Amino acid sequence: MKITGIIAEYNPFHNGHAYQIAKIKEETDSDYVIVAMSGDFVQRGEPAITDKYERARMALSCGADLVLELPALFACASAEYFARAGVALFTRMGCVDYLCFGAENADLSQLNKIAGILVDEPRSYQDALNIYLKEGKNFPAARILALKSYLSAESSDAALQTEQLTSLLSTPNNILGIEYLKALKTCGSQITPYPILREGAGYHDTDILLKNASASAIRQTLKQAGSSGSSSGSAPDFASFSAAMPQEAFRIFSEYLASSTYLESDDFSGILNYLLLFYPAEALACFADCNIEIANRLKKNRSAFSSFTQFAALNQSRDITYARMSRIFTHILLHMTAEDYKQAKQLGYVPYLRPLGFKKSSSDVLGEIKKHTDIPLIGKLANARQTLSDDAFWLLEKDIFAADLYEQVLAQKNRTIPRNEYTREIVLL
Question: What are the domain boundaries of the chain?
């Protein structure tokens, strides 16, 4: 049995995702594709456009065989933690052969070269990085400059001493791809990395009419139109999504939006504003990605708060990106601290496997996982307390809290009764 893993958000699932699944099955002759997917909050520090069960349903309807939830603590973390958790999940399964990821540049040798430097962190690289950080550059920019400085001393790497290096480290899929390779090297995983060249529109391209339009384009179009449950805009033109999504994913997505609104960061503004008022700066500084300087800035500017996105933009700076500020706010909402990450790291990042859905025809893969994994496979959530250690259950409770918060805000916006995470059913197709 040959198994490929994909770490994804599917926010929402589009043609590029379907292409990746089909391509990896074709090129590796994989029997099954397993997805480690973000839950209800995603890596940019935002709520997902639809809940995790609907996104799992889209993936399963378009080629995936099993969808597992990436723990919430890591789903809305920096790229490094996001990648480490995804790789840990597949490695601890013990039966995954390939890790497939999309890349704007699928040259594995170049990606591996950069990953190796970032793992080893040679002294000259560290020195250059510290210089650029002290100059006030944010970490992504400082890292690119430090790598250029380090590679300029190696004539054998002249091919990477061009704008190609900037491209490799500036495009979202390559950034994640390098983090996956770093994680594989760091944990000594035997999983084979398998990059696939991203086809069509770029990650941030907003042209919804493109056949290979990005998830960003779909979300942007939806937000511009407003949802059927929104009082501020007209119902979205579902037909505009059809060219960008596989037929089954489009059907699931449009049916969801016809019966429900969607969530965005600003729907959490009231809760965030309260928490920023409630916590002193010293407590805010303990949340992941935050520090006392940022916390003091948030307290100083709090009187100017009007919304989640407005306040994130207001408090970004030359060395603090909007994405980092958004993640800080999400960490505050979900009560995720820097200490939580240390504790989860000691647990091996992912101490359990939680299916969100699977194909009945692919049930054999569950048996294969049970034979090889060294961590519990959660079937019914209600039984998890008896199955997991206290520490592992602590991490699972963060998943449950994130799902319940998402559902509470969604239900309030829809004026419906919120669903309980313990009663939600695994998607079976």
Answer: 119-170, 265-341
